[in-house]
Amino acid sequence: MYFASVRIITDDVDRLVGFYEKVMGVSAVRPAPVFAELVMPSCTLAIGHSQTVPLFGVGSAVPADNHTVILEFQVHDVDAEYKRLQPFVDEWVKEPTTMPWGNRAVLFRDPDGNLINLFQPVTEEAIKRFSGRG
Question: Where do the structural domains in the chain lie, given as residue ranges?
Fold first, then answer.
């Protein structure tokens, strides 16, 4: 099995694509106006318009209604990313903090309210856990 992507459903693909292009530092591939993919070596983030939901089953996904999933990206310097993203992020959930499990993390919401965690392993144990992953 190959984990292909995580998909976010939205009513405004262009807005969300623009936001994630800034966060992730990659350009989206747009095979259709209602769909985009931001491809990185470690993961693909897909963004689909709510118009695509009936293709999977009417009511199977609701845009801007995520309260359980956190998108997580490992970065080299959480504090630098926090500063870089200040002009683009409207809602910060947690300023850079070192978590009990050894990661330094910053949490914020995308324009649809989805939670994003940028983290950096900082303790010896955390660094060992993530060595070779990015």
Answer: 1-54, 66-134
Contact of 19 with 88, CB cutoff 8 Å: yes
Token digits of residue 76? 């080299």
Instruction: Indicate yes or no: pTM above 0.90.
Output: yes
Report the alpha-carbon distance of residue 63 to residue 127 in Å, rounded: 35
Q: How far apart are CA 26 and CA 36, in angstroms?
A: 12
| CATH class given for the domain over 1-54 | alpha beta
CB neighbours of 122 closer than 8 A, spacing ≥ 6? 98, 102, 103, 104
Region label for 95, one of left (φ > 0), alpha (ψ between -120 and 50) or beta (otherwise)? beta
The contacts of residue 129 (CB under 8 Å, 6+ apart) are: 102, 121
Architecture of domain 66-134: Roll (3.10)
Q: What pLDDT, in 10s, does the model give residues 99-125?
A: 999 999 999 999 999 999 999 999 999
